[in-house]
Amino acid sequence: MINIQPLMDDAKCFEVVRQLRWPNGVRCPDWGTALVNKRGFHTHQAHRQRYECQACGHQFDDLSGTVFEGHHQPLRVWVLCLYFMGLNLSNEQIAAELDLAVGDMQTMTTQLREGVVVKKKPVQLPGEIEADEMYLIAGHKGQPEIVAKEGRPGRRRRLKGKRGRGTLADEKPPVLGMLQRDGEVVIRMLPNVQQATIQPVMTSVIAPGSLVYTDEYNIYDRLRVLTETQEPERT
């Protein structure tokens, strides 16, 4: 493995963050005004600039309100973690590259993924959509609170798959995929495949009037009707 961490420094990382966050200059995250004053640098991070808004008096810095705020790891470590995630490396591989504990890396990658989901705009798939589900023999990996709630120790061996459909409760969760022909794809893990569970997911992702193709006629064909544009009632 090549340790590329020394090839990066926090000064460059903070410079990139400022360029991406404020392409037209630093602005107060509360008021949106550009009337801000610099207030030195962070005590423990020499390149983390502090600011004060002239309008509201609020103090903030380069990382305020971001997923990187409130963590002890240097910004370059977060940037490298994000880079390795883009290469589809496992948490164990990333931890080895950055010389961190696997548990810490699990926390970091989870926070980065959740941050991306929060910032990403909702997707609406119009046109012809193909929908189908598959089942994962996943166990409660990465969910120690559920294992503790069930009152059992964590498993060391892979679960054996059961025939037929599964649920999140029995550790064989269904994963629903919605693919726009010649377009985007949206994937959602579900607790089960009951219509009451699937309906709100599909109606939130698939645009009204779209045509849904699936081999589960009895469940999904009704959702085509539900997603069609309704005529307004005449009074």
Task: Explain the overall architecture.
With 235 residues, the protein is of the alpha+beta class. It has a four-stranded mixed β-sheet with strand order 6-5-4-7, with helices on one face. A three-stranded antiparallel β-sheet has the order 1-2-3, with no helix packed on it. It has helices spanning 10-21, 75-86, 91-98, 102-119, 144-150, 195-205, 217-227; strands at residues 36-41, 49-53, 59-61, 128-135, 174-180, 185-189, 211-213. The longest helix is centred in the middle third of the chain and has 18 residues, at 102-119. The protein is built from seven helices and seven strands, in the order H-E-E-E-H-H-H-E-H-E-E-H-E-H. It has two domains: 5-119, no CATH class; 128-227, no CATH class. Helix 3 (91-98) packs across helix 4 (102-119).
Summed up:
The protein is of the alpha+beta class. It has 2 domains: 5-119, no CATH class; 128-227, no CATH class.
Question: Tags for this entry?
Answer:
about 240 residues, alpha+beta, four-stranded mixed β-sheet, 7 helices, 7 strands, about 35% helix, disordered C terminus
Q: State the low-pLDDT regions, or none.
A: 217-227, 229-233
Rg calculated over all Cα atoms: 23 Å
- How many strands, what sense, and barrel or not for the largest sheet? 4 strands, mixed
Structural class, judged by helices and strands? alpha+beta
Helix share bin = 25-40%
> What is the approximate shape?
globular
| Total helical segments | 7
**What is the chain-wise order of helices and strands?**
HEEEHHHEHEEHEH
Q: What's the total number of strands?
A: 7
Averaged pLDDT:
79
Share in β-strands: 15-25%
Number of domains: 2
Main sheet strand line-up: 6-5-4-7
- Give the terminus-to-terminus CA distance: 72 Å
- Which oligomerization state do the chains in this entry correspond to? single chain
